[in-house]
Amino acid sequence: MTSEPTMSDSKNTLTNAVHDLLRRAIIEQALKPGMRLPEDTVGEQFGVSRTIVRHALVRLENEGLVITRRNRGAFVAEPSREEAQQIFEVRRCLENEVIRILCERLPSNACDRLEAHVRSEETVKGKDGPVSIRLAGEFHILLAELTGNEVLARYVTEVVLRCSLIMSLYARTHSSDCAVDEHSQIIEAIRAGDAARAIGIMDHHLGAVAGRAELSPRADSIQSILSRYGKELAQ
Amino acid sequence: MTSEPTMSDSKNTLTNAVHDLLRRAIIEQALKPGMRLPEDTVGEQFGVSRTIVRHALVRLENEGLVITRRNRGAFVAEPSREEAQQIFEVRRCLENEVIRILCERLPSNACDRLEAHVRSEETVKGKDGPVSIRLAGEFHILLAELTGNEVLARYVTEVVLRCSLIMSLYARTHSSDCAVDEHSQIIEAIRAGDAARAIGIMDHHLGAVAGRAELSPRADSIQSILSRYGKELAQ
DNA sequence: GGCAAGCAAATTGTATCCAATTGACGGAAA
DNA sequence: TTTCCGTCAATTGGATACAATTTGCTTGCC
Fold it and tell me: Quick one: pLDDT at residue A128?
């Protein structure tokens, strides 16, 4: 589940490699939001031509991790607070569905895999580094993949990745202590087939994650701020 | 809402144009599932180079409307019955969320726009042509866009389009008579703020749509069919 | 008659090349 | 001093050329 079997693993080798590398770099905050991604710089770095980089960037844009401006190039996305709330809304909806499905039909080895993952999360517990961020996200991705619904899994993957990006932008702290514990609780509830409780925990969990990002208070989009100052200038 | 303002309308003009054109052609069944899409054939047809076509195809692949095989090229997707069920599952989940949101916060002009759309659906009622298929889908897309949640709207758009493709593969009939009527009922329920009823209708509606496609009965993958005919030939 | 190997055609994968657009810098005029 | 305009460097948008891979067919052998 880690990261590779992205449905296009064995094809488009180079494009895929660059795509995965860039995505990882973004999620782990090596590439920070707003940072430019010039095609030939990236290309030289990886020893491939712009063509490859370009294709990778197109994909990343589709995933919402990168935005491109015409004739300006690609930038690591900087989700607005509004966008962040929308993403969290969708994520909650999707993950609740995941829980619902898993409580109905849980694959045999599911709990083992989930618990194994939580253990690996615990080994990096305390360190608030990029690795723990990635692992925390991958727990949810694993959960989605266990449903067997690949479409659902793909969407959950996308939203989770974007949430990682959001947290790197807005979160005050990444203290994942409680998170790991809640992951365990979710496993418990699912094993018991208690959908209601599992959804409750998940809601609380996502709420906590979203809460750690200060999404609501400030008005965020430049235009929403400036719109209060009159529009007369723009002819 | 019709089709253009796809968040990247004014940029990448050529790529976008080809992308939209191909998508439309697929949804309206001008390009049938399984049909090949050679890059230079398409390119010549539209008077652009392979570069453009390829970018468009990458996008379409991300949307699940085409698949590409390494060194073989791109084909219009032929969703398996299993995949189709997964898509319907996700669609139901997402559209229920749409309803829930709309019952809470309904934009002022929403009902007008929805009813206008239903009226335009009624004008082509009876004719089971590609246009009515597209319009039926666009009702749901409009619904999603009215939530104001762009992420949600994007996912709904994707699933709805894929459902159109699925229907063109598996549906016995496209009789959209009942569908249009149910669209009206959904508007009614939303206007009344009755989320439970609206969701009920939507569930029934999607169930009917999914039911019109004979998804469950036959095993569909080639290998699962042929496996019953003995495997002795293949060494 | 069937099977395997090898060759040729077609198509994609990748790199390089030219053109067009953008943003920045600097100079000139008000 | 400030604003405006023109030129220039940098970077992407798009097209073409070459390499690698696959496929289907032909040929020859069993």
Answer: 65
Q: Which nucleotides of strand D lie within 7 A of protein CB? A: 11-17, 20-23
Residues of chain B contacting residue A12, judged by C-beta atoms under 8 Å apart: 70
Domain shared by B129 and B64, yes or no: no
- Residues of chain A with pLDDT > 90, as a percent, come to 50
User: Does A59 contact B55 at a Cβ distance shorter than 8 Å?
Assistant: no
CATH code (residue A62): 1.10.10.10
> Do A34 and A120 fall within a single domain?
no
Q: Is the CB of A13 under 7 A from strand C?
A: yes
Classify residue A52 as exposed, middle or buried by CB count within 10 Å of its CB (0-12, 13-18, 19+).
Answer: buried
In this structure, of A144-148, A185-189, B22-26, B100-104, the range with the lowest mean pLDDT score is: B22-26
Q: How far is the CA of B13 from the C1' of C18 (A)?
A: 20
Q: By CA distance, what is A86's nearest residue in B? A: B149
B94 and B199 part of one domain: yes
Name the nt closest to B52 by C-alpha to C1': D14
pLDDT of residue B223: 54
Q: Mark whether A65 and A93 lie in a shared domain.
A: no
**Set of chain A residues whose Cβ sits within 8 Å of the Cβ of B68:** 11
pLDDT single digits (tens) B94-140 = 999 999 999 999 999 999 999 999 999 988 876 667 777 888 899 99
Is A70 (CB) below 7 Å from strand D?
Answer: yes
Does the CB of B72 fall within 7 Å of any strand C atom? yes
The residue from A59, A76, A93 where one domain ends is: A76
If one compares A29 and B119, the residue with the highest pLDDT of the two is: B119
Q: A30 and A91: one domain?
A: no
Tell me if residue A213 falls in helix, strand or coil: strand
Q: Is residue A227 part of a domain?
A: no
- In which domain, by residue range, is B41 found? 13-76
Cα A58 off chain centre by = 18
Convert B162-195 to b/e letters by CB count within 10 Å (16 or more is b).
bbbbbbbbbbeebebeebbebbbbbbebbbeeeb
CA distance A183 to A186: 5
Does B57 fall in a domain? yes
Q: Is A166 within the bounds of a domain?
A: yes
Sign (positive or negative) of CA dihedral B179, B185, B191, B196:
negative
For range A131-153, the mean pLDDT: 93
Q: How confident is the model at residue B14 (pLDDT cuts 50, 70, 90)?
A: confident
